[in-house]
Amino acid sequence: MVKFNFKLERVLNYKQTVEDYKKNKFGLVQQKLNKEEAILNDFNEYKKMILNEKSSADEIKAGYLAMYNTYINNLNLKIKQQEKKVDETKIELERAKNEMINAVKEKKMFEKLKEREYENFTYDLMKEEEKLNDTIVSYRTTTQQ
User: Fold this and answer.
1) Alpha carbon distance 37, 86 (integer Å)
2) DSSP string spanning 104-132?
3) Can you tell me the distance from the alpha carbon of 129 to that of 145, in angstroms, rounded to the nearest whole number?
C-alpha cells in the first residue's frame, strides 16, 4: 500500500520547534514582567508605609524631616526607574507576543497544507481503488460471457 509522504514535513517540524521556542520566550518575558511589577508594588507599599510613619509622628526635628524628604525623593527616583523597567518589559512582552502569534500562524499554514495534501492523497487512493474495482468487474463480466 502507498504511504502518505508530506514533502514539507521537515519544514513543519521546524515551524513547530520555532513555535515552541516563541511560546517559551513569551512565558519567560511574562514572568519577568510579573517580577518587575511585584518589585514596583513593593516600592509603592514601602513608600506608603514610610509616609504613614512620618505623618503619625508628633514631633519631628528639622534634621530628621530633611532626612525623610531626601529618603522619600530617593525612593521616588527608584519608583520611576522601576516604572521604566516595567514599561520596557511590557514592550518586550508585546514584541514576544507578536512573534509567538506569527509563529503559530506560520505553523498552522503548513498544517493546513499538509491536511489538504492528505485529503488529495486519500481522494486519489479512492479513485485508484474505484478504477481497480471497475477493471475487476469488467474483467469478470467479459470472462463470464
Assistant:
1) 6
2) HHHHHHHHHHHHHHHHHHHHHHHHHHHHH
3) 25
Q: Per DSSP, which regions of 26-138 are E strands? A: none
108-115 long-range contacts, CB within 8 A, separation 24+: 110/8, 110/11, 110/12, 110/15, 111/12, 113/8, 114/6, 114/8, 114/9, 114/12
Question: How many whole angstroms separate alpha carbon 10 and alpha carbon 48?
Answer: 57
pTM, entire model: 0.76
pLDDT tens digit sequence for 65-93: 788 889 999 999 999 999 999 999 999 99
Which cell numbers hold the place of 74?
530617593
In this structure, the number of other CB atoms found within 10 A of the CB of residue 8 comes to 13
15 compared with 141, residue with greater pLDDT: 15
Q: What is the DSSP letter of 57?
A: -
Cell numbers 530628621 label which residue?
Answer: 64
Alpha helix segments (H runs only) across 7-61: 9-56
Q: For the chain, report the end-to-end CA distance as a whole number of angstroms.
A: 32
As given in the structure block, the three cell numbers for residue 126 are 479512492
